[in-house]
């Protein structure tokens, strides 16, 4: 399977706290992407990290990638109620099927 | 506004009906995708089109029939559906079919209910 598996399945935190979500995958990758989905809406691309990068930042988002462990993490700092959503990782495989596939995601609830 | 527009947003249809979902993108992308998102299940890739040609069919039942007349438009024709086909159907586009190298842009989906 080329899809990522997110952990935990659900996460509930207070506004202002940091949220960390993890992703594990099985294939060799070209890059890894993170997406957010608000309830009943489409997925929104957040950040792409290439296989030769170890860390990347975008605003309050920090993504790390460890290709030796086939894992990635997404950190959202100083969370807000508006960050409440499901978060998905999507490994971009080097070989095999090219279209992205997705796991079940992490459902993040940020309490105001 | 995502640049990918799906219509209708909601659709209720009987098992004997024929309906179509429409997706339109104005991002200049060459690849378009249909995904299905059922309750409590991961997103399922259904079809992939690249430059109007179908490049992937993920063992989707024939009651779902895609059509891609040009790189900007994608349809999903539905007929003789089952209640278990009720789901959120998401359309996406990307610069090319190797979406692992470029971000996907999703529409907001069509919520389909089959009665």
What's the layout of helices and strands?
The complex is a heterodimer of chains A (about 110) and B (about 120).
Chain A lengths: L4 E3 L2 E5 L4 E6 L4 E9 L5 E8 L4 E4 L2 E6 L4 E6 L8 E9 L12 E6 L1
Parallel strand pairs in A: 2-10
Antiparallel strand pairs in A: 1-3, 3-8, 4-5, 4-9, 6-7, 7-8, 9-10
Chain B lengths: L3 E4 L2 E4 L4 E8 L5 E7 L6 E7 L2 E5 L6 E7 L2 E7 L7 E8 L10 E2 L3 E5 L1
Parallel strand pairs in B: 2-11
Antiparallel strand pairs in B: 1-3, 3-8, 4-5, 4-9, 5-6, 7-8, 9-10, 9-11
Describe the structure.
The complex is a heterodimer of chains A (112) and B (115). Chain A has strands at residues 5-7, 10-14, 19-24, 29-37, 43-50, 55-58, 61-66, 71-76, 85-93, 106-111. Chain A has 112 residues and is an all-beta fold. By secondary structure, chain B is mostly beta strands. In chain B, 0% of the residues lie in helices and 56% in strands. Chain B starts with a strand and ends with a strand. The model of chain B has no long low-confidence stretch (mean pLDDT 92). The chains are: A mainly beta (112), B mainly beta (115). Chain A binds chain B through residues 3, 29-31, 33, 35, 40-45, 48, 88, 90-93, 97-105, and chain B through 2, 4, 6, 33, 35, 41-43, 45, 48, 56, 88, 90, 92, 97-101, 103-109, 111.
